[in-house]
Write a structure and sequence with these properties.
Number of strands: 18
Largest sheet: 4 strands, mixed
Distance between the termini: 38 Å
Radius of gyration: 29 Å
Strand content: 5-15%
Length: about 725
């Protein structure tokens, strides 16, 4: 994976940002709204710098830059809501440079030279009324009429007052509108259709920039405004919706980038990716802008405040191609009805959303292992929870180096990357094999490697590495819940031992575990974060009792009781009362991403599609129903956002990317909340089949409905994730006090 921009792209982005920051002001925005929504002086500077022609081919006088370069520019245009037709001009000049005709070449030369302003109509001409972008100020609009690419002229005039206060007009493009055929035929049509896909990504990027700036404005206001003696950003009612908005906005940007990469590499589903990105932007941006405006309270709706400028444009820009659900229909048809899409040549793309060749090799190795070792008996007991654990199979995985391949070599691992582990986990999910005991034991193992004495390292890591032992986590208590530092379980020193009393809840796999990673209170007289100590406690010590707790997800967790359990001091991890350091190490791993939950989510979607393809209603497969594809497409879009957020978290953690502290919480928040919402959507879609418990098809949707709610709680609730995101991603005050 590689999500870094190169130096030229950073310079490009900074250059356009400086231009907009200098030239676009609240005064200039309002001045443009009073006329035709167009800033002629700013446009002249854009022409001088060549940004309007960056996607036009060099042979036609353009800059011939990549589509990723272009979306970086339109992101900044959205951030500053610059009143110029940048997305449309880039698209128009692109298609003109591709058309093989003298008329198109001549017009392209005039447009690139600044003699004419040519806009772009992102839908095919029909008999219905359409918004013609910037037609009130443009010298012409390039459009598609059947197999003809035409230039529409004579549309200038009074602006149709509109939500975004731009130079658009609502028109019916009948024979009264003057038109010139620029090119015709299948090749010309495909060039235009490919440019529509490009326009979608340019516009989605501008909506991403708009969304991010809306959140920045709201966060700044919430960090200054005091109500009831407190900064309003410290109230969860303010901070949490903004945190959700940040997750949605970052997913928006990443989905645009991922689409460009997918098209460049012709990956599976690439033909639907631009429509996915555009649809998600049209859904998320207006909600983000609304949340941001709401933060300002009554001031937000005042025309004197700038946030309303963003609120109006967020929706207006989302509707430039009509009802966004039409785009969602294309997603469903392209994924499951063999609808073909003309895609643009996006140019050179250095970013990389793949897990890499080593991850592919790891997945292939694990698949070979499963095929060789999965007996009918093991398939019969396979289960997503710890009920599916089989010690002998686990030991075979350890012998093959596939249980903990990411461990350091000194502990028997291969130092596999997070990307390779993502490939491994995907195969585990494909075979329905549990992924609880291994990751939990792994989390504990890294704490032992970092903080235990050598004697305990040799004992515990050795047993884990051979598959002889498992671990469980002892964090939460009945009275403290997610506030793990409010724990009351006491550890009192007695010579070379500690006497531990109390109880822990949600000690999943505790009934199988040989060690528990235990958070205890060793000093009740200091602030709660300072008075904790962590131990790795053998579970066979006298005084430990495990009581089962069965959940609606068809999973078992436990309550663990400890009464006068005597633990040798050698099992202490880190300093006395210094457990916060150990816990931060552990929690960074737990909050590092949500790819494990995404795989559950993906399985639910995959099985829903299989159900729709193999189940008939009214003498046809349910997938043939347009409404079914539409609803599946909605879930597929949400999952696509989830995937790019999870992959970004893996990448940022591995490469220690600055500013990454909120990436893991963002991926967990979005993934688990989308999983929950979409499990409800798919349960409705697949009813009544989705009422029946089964491991496959609609039965997997039923499982997803029961399973997804727990994912919003495990590893830190969604509320905790939102608080972390608000604080670290938006700079808001702590909202947990």
């Amino acid at each position: 994976m590689n999500l870094n921009l190169n130096e030229d792209q950073i310079m490009l982005r900074d250059t356009i940002a400086r231009l907009f920051k200098t030239e676009v002001s609240p005064e200039s925005l309002r001045a443009s709204e009073e006329t035709n929504g167009f800033d002629q002086a700013l446009w002249a500077q854009i022409i001088e710098l060549g940004f309007h022609s960056m996607r036009a081919q060099e042979a036609a006088g353009g800059l011939g830059m990549s589509l990723l370069d272009a979306v970086l520019v339109t992101e900044e245009q959205g951030r500053y809501i610059a009143p110029v037709p940048l997305c449309e001009a880039i698209a128009a000049n692109r298609v003109l440079s591709l058309l093989d005709s003298d008329a198109a070449s001549s017009l392209c030369e005039q447009a690139i030279g600044g003699e004419k302003l040519i806009s772009f109509l992102p839908v095919e001409i029909s008999g219905n009324g359409v918004i013609v972008p910037w037609s009130a100020v443009a010298d012409g609009v390039v459009a598609l009429d059947g197999n003809q690419v035409v230039l529409l002229e004579g549309l200038q005039g009074d602006v149709t007052r509109n939500l975004g206060s731009a130079g658009h007009a609502l028109r019916t493009l009948d024979n009264s509108v003057a038109r010139t055929v620029l090119a015709e035929g299948e090749a010309a049509r495909n060039h235009f259709l490919a440019t529509i896909e490009e326009w979608k990504l340019l516009t989605a990027a501008s909506l991403a920039g708009l969304s991010r700036q809306s959140l920045t404005m709201a966060a700044e206001y919430a960090g200054e405004r005091v109500q009831f003696g407190t900064l309003i950003g410290a109230y969860q009612g303010i901070a949490h919706p903004l945190a959700t908005g940040l997750a949605n906005a970052e997913g928006m940007q990443l989905l645009v980038w991922q689409s460009i990469w997918a098209i460049a590499n012709n990956t599976e589903g690439a033909n639907a990716s631009s429509s996915m990105a555009f649809w998600w932007a049209t859904q998320a941006a207006p909600k983000i802008a609304a949340t941001s405006l709401h933060t300002f309270g009554g001031y937000g709706v005042s025309l004197e405040y700038d946030i309303q400028l963003y609120y109006r444009r967020a929706k207006a820009w989302s509707l430039m191609a009509g009802d966004p659900n039409t785009t969602l229909e294309h997603v469903g048809n392209r994924l499951w009805a063999n609808e073909q899409a003309a895609l643009p040549d996006v140019g050179e793309v250095e970013i990389d959303f793949s897990l890499g060749e080593n991850a592919v090799k790891m997945a292939a190795e694990v698949k070979t292992f499963f095929e060789a070792n999965m007996t009918d008996e093991l398939r019969a007991i396979a289960h997503h929870s710890v009920a599916g654990y089989d010690k002998a199979f686990s030991q075979k995985l350890c012998d093959a180096g596939l249980r903990y391949p990411h461990w350091p070599k000194e502990y028997g691992g291969r130092e596999a990357t997070p990307f390779e582990m993502a490939g491994l986990n995907a195969v585990f999910e494909d075979y329905g094999w549990e992924r609880i005991t291994g990751p939990v034991t792994n989390q504990i193992a890294f704490g032992v490697m970092e903080f235990a004495c050598q004697e305990v390292k040799d004992e515990v890591i050795g047993r884990f590495a051979s598959g002889d032992a498992l671990g469980c986590l002892g964090f939460s208590e009945p009275a403290s819940g997610s506030d793990i530092y409010g724990a009351k379980m006491s550890a009192v020193p007695d010579g070379d031992e500690w006497v531990i009393n109390g109880q822990k809840i949600f000690t999943t796999s505790g009934n199988l575990a040989d060690y528990i990673f235990l958070l205890t209170r060793t000093n009740p007289d200091v602030p709660k974060h300072k008075g904790i100590t962590i131990f790795i406690v053998p579970m066979d010590l006298p005084g430990i009792e495990i009581h089962p707790v069965h959940t609606l997800q068809d999973e078992r967790t436990n309550i663990t009781y400890m009464e006068n359990v005597r633990v040798p001091d050698k099992y202490r991890l880190g300093e006395v009362d210094g457990g916060i350091k150990v816990m931060l190490h552990a929690m960074e791993m737990e909050h590092g991403g949500a790819d494990q939950y995404r795989l559950n989510y993906q399985s639910m979607l995959t099985n829903a599609v299989k159900w729709a393809q193999t189940t008939q209603r009214n003498d046809q497969a349910i997938i043939e129903e347009s409404n079914t594809r539409l609803r599946l497409a909605k879930v597929a879009c949400h999952h696509a956002v989830s995937k790019v957020l999870c992959y970004r978290s893996l990448w940022a953690s591995f490469y220690k990317v600055p500013g990454r502290s909120h990436f893991g919480p963002v991926s967990k928040l979005f993934t688990t909340e989308a999983y929950l919402a979409d499990s409800i959507e798919l349960t409705d879609l697949a009813a009544p089949w989705s009422l029946v418990e089964d491991r496959h098809g609609a039965g997997h949707i039923e499982l997803g409905y029961r399973q997804s709610i727990g994912t919003t709680i495990y590893g830190g609730t969604s509320e905790i994730m939102r608080s972390i995101i608000a604080e670290h991603g938006l700079g808001l005050p702590k909202s947990r006090n």
